[in-house]
Amino acid sequence: MSAHIIDRSSTETVYSQVSRSLEHEIKSLHRPGDYLPSEQELASRFSVNRHTIRRAIDELVNAGLVERRHGRGTVILDPALDYSIGENSRFTEFLESRGKTTDSKVLRKLVVPASGGVSRRLGVTDGDPVIWIETLRQVDHIPFCIISHFIPHKQFESIETGYNGGSLHRFIKENLNIKLRRTDSLITAVLPQGDDALHLSMPQQMPVLRVKSLNVDIHTDLPVEYAVTRFRSDRIQLAVNL
């Protein structure tokens, strides 16, 4: 690719032209996991300065096509992943069945008083203790989503001490002999809050897809877990199975 593709008389900015050209190259010549040439190489190729290249790559990052890796360069990402939401959806099982590697890291685990929507969804009284577990899920070693899990402490105290990572639903099934069923999900697009953007390695101005779900005991229909999941919106397409 040579610099003559840049039309400096165009009303389109130079960095947008560079970004568009790189996007075409990514989709036609590269595969996920490949790295773009260095900023210096790209600046020389397009006869522009490195600031212009950075802005062009920013466009690709915001579009979810690439991700900057500190000390390594800019890597090309997989296309957005289709993830089905239904009453039996299970994060780990679903992704592993598609050849993806998954990892779940516990960011925090506390017992807190229930209030507001947590109380209502779990059917407990405001002030009742609930286990609050915050997990970071990665797919193929790339941040994918953060989940806030809320579980009644009185009935499920063993989860506080026993669960330390991996599939929470698998832990509940294997250790408590309880299989969960999702009853409903509420999906909204919101800006990341708190340290979500930092943990998800995404821009603060990029929306996340927030999914609020209630999981109940498949046999008793009693609430076990209220979950608030924040997905990187550039990494996923949500398919709702009714």
Structural write-up:
The protein has 242 residues and is of the alpha+beta class. It folds into two domains: 3-76, Winged helix-like DNA-binding domain superfamily/Winged helix DNA-binding domain (Arc Repressor Mutant, subunit A), CATH 1.10.10; 81-240, Chorismate lyase-like (Chorismate lyase, 3-Layer(aba) Sandwich), CATH 3.40.1410. It is built from eight helices and ten strands. The protein has helices spanning 14-29, 39-46, 50-62, 91-96, 116-122, 157-162, 168-176, 196-200, and strands at 66-69, 73-76, 81-85, 102-113, 129-139, 142-152, 180-190, 208-217, 223-232, 236-240. The protein has a six-stranded antiparallel β-sheet with strand order 4-5-6-9-8-7. Strands 1-2 form a two-stranded antiparallel ribbon. A hairpin with a 3-residue loop joins strand 1 (66-69) and strand 2 (73-76). Helix 1 (14-29) crosses helix 3 (50-62) and helix 2 (39-46) crosses helix 3. The protein is elongated. It starts with 13 loop residues before the first helix and ends with a strand.
Q: Summed up, what is this model?
A:
The protein is α+β, with helices and mostly antiparallel strands.
Protein topology:
Elements: H1 14-29, H2 39-46, H3 50-62, E1 66-69, E2 73-76, E3 81-85, H4 91-96, E4 102-113, H5 116-122, E5 129-139, E6 142-152, H6 157-162, H7 168-176, E7 180-190, H8 196-200, E8 208-217, E9 223-232, E10 236-240
Parallel strand pairs: 3-10
Antiparallel strand pairs: 1-2, 4-5, 5-6, 6-9, 7-8, 8-9
